[in-house]
Each structure stands twice: as C-alpha cells, then as structure tokens.
Amino acid sequence: MRLSPTLSAYIGRQFLLWFLAVLGVMLAIIYLLDTVELLRRAATKPDATFEVVIGMGLLKLPEIGQQVFPFVILFGGLYTFWRLTRTQELVVARASGISVWQFMAPVMLTAIGVGILLITVLNPIFSAMLSRYEQMENRYLRGQTSSLDVAKSGLWLRQPGEDLSYLIHAESVVPGTLELRKVMVLLDAPPGAPAGPSGAPQTAGRLDAATAVLKEGYWDLREVWYNRPGRPPEFLARYRLPTELTEQRIQESFASPDTLSFWELPRFIDMLEATGLSSIRHRLYWHSLLALPVFFAAMVLLAAAFALRQSRRGGVLGLVAAGLATTLVLFVLRDIVRALGVSGAVPVPLAAWAPAGITVMLGIAALLHMEDG
C-alpha cells in the first residue's frame, strides 16, 4: 500500500514538532551551563561584565548547537516513533500494509531537509556569531586583540609565484597588528626574474629584517640584510616584497574552521594550499558539513530501529537507555575518526564521511533484521 500525502505530512509534522521541542530543551541546558562557566572565567576580569558574558553565551550557543544536532534528530525521532506507536497510529498504519520504510520516509526527508537548511542558510549565520564570540573571548577573557598573539614558536608563511616565490619566518608578532619582528625571508626566483621595487635584483637568496609590516600588495621590510650566493651581504634600509596575502586571510588561517561559512570554505581552502598553509582542518570541517544530511538520515534509521524494538518489548526506560548509549558511542567514534583525519593517518573525506556511512549501514541492517529477519 502506498503512503498517502496526508499521512506523510502528518508524520513529518509530528517529527518536526518534537525535534524543535528537544532542541529547545537541550539548547536551554547548554546555554545555562556554558554561561555559568563563562561567569567563572570572567570572575577576575573587570572588563567582562555580566551583560558581556550573557552576550558571549548567546553568540557561542549556535556553535555548540550544531554539535548536538545529530543527537537531537535521534531523540526527536525516538520520541516521535514511540508516541505514534503508543497511540496505535503506527499499528493501524502497519496493519493496512504500510511498511516501516514508508512511514519512516517523511521523517527521513524532514531530517535531510533540516541538514541542508543548516549547512546552506544557518551555518553562515552561526559562523559569523562564533567569529564574534572568539573576538570577545580574546578581548575580555584572554586579554588578546589578535589570534596571532599566541604564536610563540614563530610564524611561517609561503608565497608562491611565477617571478618570485619565498618563505617567511618571524619569531614574533606585535600584538594587535600584523607587524613581524626578527624576520627571515628565503627567496627563490627563476633566472632572469625582474628587479624588485627597491631596485635590488630578485634572485635566490635570503633577507634578514628587523621588522616587516604587511601593506596593500607588499611586505614593508626595514633594516634588511640582503644575502645572495657569490655576493657580499648588502644592507638596505627598506625593501618591498610583493605578496598576495592580506591581513584578513592570515588572521582567518589561524582561526578555527567553524568561524568560516560553508560557502567561504572552498575558496579559503584553495588560498591556504596556494600559500603553503595547512588546510586539513578546514577540508575536514567542510566535508563534515557535506555529510551532515546523510548523518541526520542515519539518526532517523537508528531511531526507528530502537523505537520499534522497544515498542515490542515495552518500556520507555529501555528506549532512553538505548538512545543515550548510541549517543555516547557515536560521539566517541566521531572524535576518534576526526582525530585520525586531522593527524593525516586517514584521508580527510574518509574521516568526514565514515561516521555517517557506518551509522547508515547499522541502521539499515537493524531494520532489515527486524522486518525481514
């Protein structure tokens, strides 16, 4: 028997209602706990007033909310299927010839739609809120004005190019600016390359400068010693080093990937790879976003399997225990696989898609065993 559009819409609405209810409860609990933690951290910070902490908690809430979304889908699906079974609605539907795959389809489509909405519309908003939160955290709780202030082991930047490519190392960065101190530049230019803006030929060599300030289109190096093979060192008061980097790009490269929106990530990943900076974390985060709709569908499969099994045996406590155990296992699995991806032990696409793929296979196997086994 084919599932009617009216029944499909009814089941989908039921799931969406309980999904929003579970999400609201979980976000309220998370906000309360996170605000208490922020208040503890702000206790010794005179600039971090109560209003600032409340605002920071609200700005951080979407970032944590995105992490619990899959499990809100799971618990929303569990309660939806359990309630429909308890009220005999699914019993009547199955007695009329509707299979578990049919009445599960509206819930799965709704979950996939929520995933697509999350990554395409909500994620850019959430990433902007998280970026603002990190700025406030650096300012009020850490006493920093730049994400580069913590760079104690030095800063490495690479600039490729047809006429000139080079590698920059700086021992420190002036807080609140992009002024580099104790700078070393390793030049690598092809034969016949044109002279630089200062008149010095851009050949392979090394530049040692006291400071370097990023300007529009170039690095402004001061008190420079220019060392080239076969020539004596040359002192230059100033030297202009062309670059395509901007302050925003460098700052963002040191920020967490979730401060960038889904639409900005591909372009930013290309920029990181072109400048020699590691893009593993950003690529892993982008693939994880792509896998979210599939992961949400997998949560629905597991919810149906647990709810139908417990409805036959009876007992709400068993249903809740199964959901909590599954949540714990999936959290651990995702963290382990992502850690392997960040370390380079497994390919990034595999690390991002493996949790969703494994969960889908487990859910399908459980439902096939229950229905046809």
UniProtKB/TrEMBL annotation:
Protein keywords: Cell membrane, Membrane, Transmembrane, Transmembrane helix
Keyword Transferase attached: no
One GO term describing the cellular component: ATP-binding cassette (ABC) transporter complex
Transmembrane feature ranges: 15-33, 68-85, 105-126, 284-308, 314-333, 345-368
Any one GO BP annotation for this protein: lipopolysaccharide transport
Name of one Pfam family that matches: LptF_LptG
Domain of life of the native organism: Bacteria
Subcellular location: Cell membrane
Topological type in the membrane: Multi-pass membrane protein
Entry keyword Oxidoreductase: no
NCBIfam families in alphabetical order: LptG_lptG
Name of protein: LPS export ABC transporter permease LptG
Organism: Aerophototrophica crusticola
